[in-house]
Amino acid sequence: xxxxxxxxxxxxxxxxxxxxxxxxxxxxxxxxxxxxxxxxxxxxxxxxxxxxxxxxxxxxxxxxxxxxxxxxxxxxxxxxxxxxxxxxxxxxxxxxxxxxxxxxxxxxxxxxxxxxxxxxxxxxxxxxxxxxxxxxxxxxxxxxxxxxxxxxxxxxxxxxxxx
Length: 163
Description:
five-stranded mixed β-sheet, single chain, three-stranded mixed β-sheet, 163 residues, 36% strand, 2 helices, mainly beta
């Protein structure tokens, strides 16, 4: 097959300085053979990604916390706690569930504490440790800064010290 490129001739004529009519470029190519069949395989189709719905997930239901009652043997208010009682509208009673750090199990005890009226939020356990003679100490602090130290005695009962 012969293909005549006039554009190539124009370029060549411009370089050599001849006219376009005098220059022609002939390119010999292979003669066409029988048509070739081309098989193109489609890429594999991936399955669509799974769709997750918010309501399809199992909902965990929180179990209510069970607290065992325990006797309060003695309450002691330090001078700073007495000042807080006087300045913030008197004491109010709250019940908190406290874990005894000395017994080594996850049993919670219901302890009634007396806090100033300014203590509105839930308390935070700041420190829990095992002290001398196997007593458990848990320190709870309210957002207003009031603290209660709950001491678990070995043979039952708690002592509460307010600071």
